[in-house]
Amino acid sequence: MASAAADAAQSSAASAARLAREWSTWAMKKSEKMVISFARIKPRKKKKKAKVVAHYGFIPLVVLVGMRSEPRPSLAQLLSPV
Amino acid sequence: MGSAASAAAPPPPPPVQPHGAAPPYGVGLAGILPPKPDGDEKKEEKVDYLNLPCPVAYEEIQREALMSLKPELFEGLRFDFTKMLSQKFALSHSVLMGSLEVPSQSADVIKVPTAQYEFGANFIDLPQLMLIGRLMTDGRLNARVKCDLTENLALKVNAQLTSEPHYSQGMFNFDYKGTDYRAQFQIGNNAFYGANYIQSVTPNLSMGTEIFWLGQQRKSGIGFNSRYNTDKMVGTLQVASTGIVALSYVQKVSEKVSLATDFMYNHMSRDVTSSVGYDYILRQCRLRGKIDSNGVVAAYLEERLNMGVNFLLSAEIDHAKKNYKFGFGMTVGE
């Protein structure tokens, strides 16, 4: 009986390990795919995308960093003209 | 027993002398103990060449001359409103209604009346991080980032992004600050690479050199500059292989007044320009005026009307080209 319990525990541990391995390889494969797809884009298009991201995202980035700094201003202070 | 060499007893302090009074000694002692000279506190300090101050950055050696001689002259109406949301974060709104000069091939001056609104966001948390962004109605973004990566290494990014293709510009600068030198490496768009180095040679003199390479046009250049400054004056000299020689001199006449002059010679186009100007920094206003060798007279006044409210007047008169620019404006907020 003890050996059966031990066997069950062992098998569950083994299955857990197997699941963990599967998930981690799945995650690695996904991230590899993303990196490869970004690296496969031609350099010119990459520069264009980076430029567009910087163009639209810089001012929101500054506002975000400013709103999160101490002391935190409120949204009303951000939007009011006074 | 301690070694004889270490901790020798300090020499006894010199005998105290009454300041300037004639020694009331006898004739015998007067020869041995001369009276201390009166009032002369300044001693010739020996320059410690291993402990020189850090020089001004390479691109800023002319900053006093530029501040005095090149104010931001404008034409039309200008209104700036800056709203501080906290000590570090501010939003700014800026309106300019007037004529902007369009560069033209002929000698005529072409002005285009424009109206623009500019929204800006500043996050200034010196010394670590500084983010400044300005966005205009035509979609142009002007971004400046300054970040201290380590105590001595700083990264500066300066970019102008436009909606039109091929008109955007960007420049990355890596600055390294040493004890008495500064080094900078620049990477820009269109395959621009540059490096410069400036070193303090004496406590007043610093000299530097720069080299750059333009990938797209396959051009390279080298330049030298030097800056000599004391408490009262600053003199700079710049020579570049692009054929430009520039000198400038600023004299601080008093706490409130400085006079500045600069001279620029372009060997390629045989163009010489010289200007003389003054800069009055008074309690309620700052007045800058200059006159040019091209016959251009300019003046710029910033008057403080109230706490945080500034009134601006700008004028530039060029009789030769018949170009008259007058502007007025107001700045509200710090």
UniProtKB/TrEMBL annotation, chain A:
<feature type="transmembrane region" description="Helical">
    <location>
        <begin position="52"/>
        <end position="69"/>
    </location>
</feature>
<keyword id="KW-0496">Mitochondrion</keyword>
<protein>
    <recommendedName>
        <fullName>Mitochondrial import receptor subunit TOM7-1</fullName>
    </recommendedName>
</protein>
<dbReference type="InterPro" id="IPR012621">
    <property type="entry name" value="Tom7"/>
</dbReference>
<dbReference type="GO" id="GO:0030150">
    <property type="term" value="P:protein import into mitochondrial matrix"/>
</dbReference>
<keyword id="KW-0812">Transmembrane</keyword>
<dbReference type="GO" id="GO:0005742">
    <property type="term" value="C:mitochondrial outer membrane translocase complex"/>
</dbReference>
<keyword id="KW-0472">Membrane</keyword>
<dbReference type="Pfam" id="PF08038">
    <property type="entry name" value="Tom7"/>
</dbReference>
<keyword id="KW-0653">Protein transport</keyword>
<keyword id="KW-1000">Mitochondrion outer membrane</keyword>
<keyword id="KW-0813">Transport</keyword>
<comment type="similarity">
    <text>Belongs to the Tom7 family.</text>
</comment>
<keyword id="KW-1133">Transmembrane helix</keyword>
UniProtKB/TrEMBL annotation, chain B:
<comment type="function">
    <text>Central component of the receptor complex responsible for the recognition and translocation of cytosolically synthesized mitochondrial preproteins. Together with TOM22 functions as the transit peptide receptor at the surface of the mitochondrion outer membrane and facilitates the movement of preproteins into the translocation pore. Directly involved in the pore formation.</text>
</comment>
<dbReference type="GO" id="GO:0005741">
    <property type="term" value="C:mitochondrial outer membrane"/>
</dbReference>
<keyword id="KW-0472">Membrane</keyword>
<dbReference type="GO" id="GO:0015288">
    <property type="term" value="F:porin activity"/>
</dbReference>
<keyword id="KW-0007">Acetylation</keyword>
<dbReference type="GO" id="GO:0030150">
    <property type="term" value="P:protein import into mitochondrial matrix"/>
</dbReference>
<comment type="similarity">
    <text>Belongs to the Tom40 family.</text>
</comment>
<keyword id="KW-0406">Ion transport</keyword>
<keyword id="KW-0653">Protein transport</keyword>
<protein>
    <recommendedName>
        <fullName>Mitochondrial import receptor subunit TOM40-1</fullName>
    </recommendedName>
</protein>
<keyword id="KW-1000">Mitochondrion outer membrane</keyword>
<keyword id="KW-0812">Transmembrane</keyword>
<dbReference type="GO" id="GO:0046930">
    <property type="term" value="C:pore complex"/>
</dbReference>
<dbReference type="InterPro" id="IPR023614">
    <property type="entry name" value="Porin_dom_sf"/>
</dbReference>
<keyword id="KW-0813">Transport</keyword>
<dbReference type="GO" id="GO:0008320">
    <property type="term" value="F:protein transmembrane transporter activity"/>
</dbReference>
<keyword id="KW-0496">Mitochondrion</keyword>
<dbReference type="GO" id="GO:0006811">
    <property type="term" value="P:monoatomic ion transport"/>
</dbReference>
<dbReference type="Pfam" id="PF01459">
    <property type="entry name" value="Porin_3"/>
</dbReference>
<keyword id="KW-1134">Transmembrane beta strand</keyword>
<dbReference type="InterPro" id="IPR027246">
    <property type="entry name" value="Porin_Euk/Tom40"/>
</dbReference>
<feature type="region of interest" description="Disordered">
    <location>
        <begin position="1"/>
        <end position="44"/>
    </location>
</feature>
